[in-house]
Amino acid sequence: MEQPGFFPEQDPLVEDQLPDGTLRIKIIGIGGAGTNAVDRIKLEDLEQVHLTAIDTDSQVLAASPVEETYLLGRTVTNGKSTGGSVSKGQLAAEADSNALREIVRGIDLVFLLAGLGGGTGSGAAPVIAELAKSQGALVIAFTPLPFKREGAGRCERAEKALESLRKHCHAAISLPNDLIFEQVDESATLMEAFATADKWIKLGVHSVWSMLFNTGLINLDFSTLQAALSEPGGRTIFGTGYGKGENSLEAAIKDLESCPLFHLPDPGVIKETDQLVLNLTGGPDMTMATVNKAMDLINEKLGSKSSLIMGASIDGSFYNQLRITIMGTVRGTGITKGFAPVPAASIPPNGPVAPPLKPAELFEAKEALTPSKREQEEFAFPSQEENRGLFERTQRNLYEGIDLDIPTYLRRGIKIPRN
Amino acid sequence: MSRSKIVGAIEIGTSKVVVLVAEMADGRSMNIIGRGQSTAAGMKKGEIVDIRSVSDCAHAAIMAAERDAGKQIEHVYLSLSGSHLWGFRNAGATAITGTDGIVSGTDILRAAENAKSRGLEPGEVYIHHIRSGFILDGKLVENPVAREGSHLEVQYWHVAADEQKVKDQIMVVNGFGLDVNDIVISSLATGSLVATEEEKRQGVLVVDIGKGVTDYVLYKGRRVVQTGVIPVGGDHITNDLSLGLRVKSKLAESLKKRNACAMVQKEDRTKKVPLVGDLSIGDSFHSQLTINKITHARLEELFIILKNRMGSALTRQNLPCGMILTGGVSRTPMIQELAEVTLDVPVALAQSPDWVRNSELQEPEYATVLGLLYNALHDQKENRSDDGNTPKKTWFRKVTGLFG
Asked: For residues B79 and B64, what is the distance between their CA atoms, to the nearest angstrom?
């Protein structure tokens, strides 16, 4: 609805936030590792993306090729680093909150790149994330986690920081450096190992970027992404895979599985209400069959059907190649949390919990049991068998990873009205 | 009369065992003279789970059929289904060896041997090698004999099964003192009956949704191109209803037959249907919407699986005659509409050919056994020339010999 005069001139903030409809994306590197990653992204020109490097160490910033740099916590650390102190990093960010707010103002999508475990990254990143979120931006954090070898203290700091980042970011994607180390061969130098980590981060940023900016066959836009990540606090799923040649799809899925950013939750954790965004980037030769097959394969992996939103975009240079990117948030952390209470009558108190296949309202015990119902419960079994009824003692009827003997409406989460 | 044979067709299905007895005169005509059936027990999803009760049911049905016919069965044709059946395409190729470059019978045999040579996993046996066409120098030809070329490829659709499960079925028949002449997978038997020659030429998919499983066969250019079994059937709808409404399977089954509809309709929202329907005290009422939603979800999923299995073969272009639905579940109201919406091909309900006069035999339950008899008749007519459509005899001797 048009509301003339609703955005008055006297509010420069709002005016500035209404550009010509294009997305504003900012990649902010925080701390030493984050700045390095941003530097590397700088080398690859992405349209409509602004880069910012933020650190407490003036030396690091001086060496950075990025245009916008900000020395954090001048009053706290005097331009020297935090020395690994998280509280100093946090203090520094809080002291400069006005300037930081300025940096994220009017930005739609903020990528935070921060190496966790150190002072600046662990301390400042959550503060910046919170600021960006309060300014209305969608915040996605890519965070390398330290090597286990770097010491238990550092790992613990990183874990804590990740925890608080999860609270403030729409998506926090962690990248354990240990996994990176497995990927590079033993003779690789430390430089190369860290370069690999940066490469993955770059890839992550790039895949989200191309999801938003490449023309889509089935377009995924910013709003979709926003919807999928709308609630901060959950576990983020992110992965990207690349395949080439005849079996590009299979190769891409294989690559996706080995992606160190990709931590697949257990099937069943993903609920129908969670939204995951799957994007395929292919050449102009991409077929609908490929898209369908990819959907099926991913569905099978995730064990949840209706929660996937698919997009497909075309990149002119991607002939015979395919990139799969999957992203989303799984709300709630526990496996059983949020699922229906198991009907009391059929399960012994300490028995195994039925698989989380049914929405709550389906099986709420009704007071008036007809005689037939009572008999029904006699052959209700705990465990997974419960949903198979008639087929309880037969072989599982697996088709692409789903058991066809379990009622379709349960698997699809279709709500069925009860009397 | 001395040349007539008494042939029995036996289908051990998940819902019932159906036996038809026919008198075949000289391989030219047949009269169906006996019919027997019994409710099957011990079968789930098209497979035997309790061989003793299956045997009892099968023997009762065979006995009833023989009594009905007044004659003893001499030859048995058995249909086979179940999710252990699987098919794959494998082509055999050969170079034409004759100096004149004319394709000879030996060339075809050699190519066929190549195609059939693929080894199976231990514990599996071939049921059928179905020839689906020749490709001579890259061109599809009807009959390559006496044509000129240099490279011959013969396309086969192979059907393999779990040896133990096949043996079990044969053992059930053997237990009655009968040898099994031939085994035909259910989809082929049904397909050969309900699809007309014209439909087979243009391309048609016959889908038999039974109680335990769904069998399908795809015809194109008069040949069988693909067959398969999806381990989902009417029992699944019953089970879904039984779990969803929390009622006994038996009641869910009758409720399904009376009230389940494949599509959700507007008026379902307010409609309630009784569970038992005999006005007895304690009868509960269930929402029509719930029933239809559950049925719809299951059947739609079945069609989607079918669509995924068939791939591009299942499009309006490639399948002008669309799909023919048969089997007990095809009686579900609106299933035709659902299939049309889901698969986007024309869908028809199966009709028995004109020669089936008895109205009871026109019911979908008899399609498979009638198809078996139809195959048996053709078998005798063609005197078992290896047209690729029948399994090798030696194999049966091997298997049946174990019990003989």
From this structure: 19
Residue A372, chain B, CB below 8 Å: the answer is: yes
Mutation pick from B48, B243, B315 vs chain A, by most beta carbons of A within 10 Å, is B243
Using one digit for the tens of pLDDT, what is the confidence trace for B285-326?
888 888 998 999 999 999 999 988 888 888 888 888 889 999
For residue A123, CA distances in Å to A72, A219, A389, B197 come to: 11, 37, 53, 77
Specify whether the CB–CB gap between A411 and A305 falls below 8 A: yes
Q: pLDDT, tens digit, for every residue of A332-362?
A: 543 333 333 333 333 333 333 333 333 333 3
- Domains belonging to chain A, first-starting first, are 22-213 (3.40.50.1440), 224-330 (3.30.1330.20), 344-412 (no CATH)
Count CB neighbours of B138 within 10 A.
8
Interval A220-240: pLDDT, tens: 777 777 777 766 566 677 778
Chain B nearest-CA distance from A390, in A, is 6
Which distant-in-sequence residues (6+ apart) come within 8 Å of B397 by Cβ?
none
Domains identified in chain B and CATH numbers: 4-83+163-186+353-401 (3.30.420.40), 86-161 (3.30.1490.110), 234-348 (3.30.420.40)
**Which helix (H) or strand (E) segment is B199 a member of?**
helix B197-202
Residue A18 has pLDDT above 60, yes or no: no
Q: For residues A185 and B279, what is the distance between their CA atoms, to the nearest angstrom?
A: 77
Sheet with A109-114, side-by-side order of all strands: A68-71, A49-55, A25-30, A109-114, A138-145, A171-176
Please tell me whether the interface predicted TM-score (ipTM) of this complex is above 0.90: no
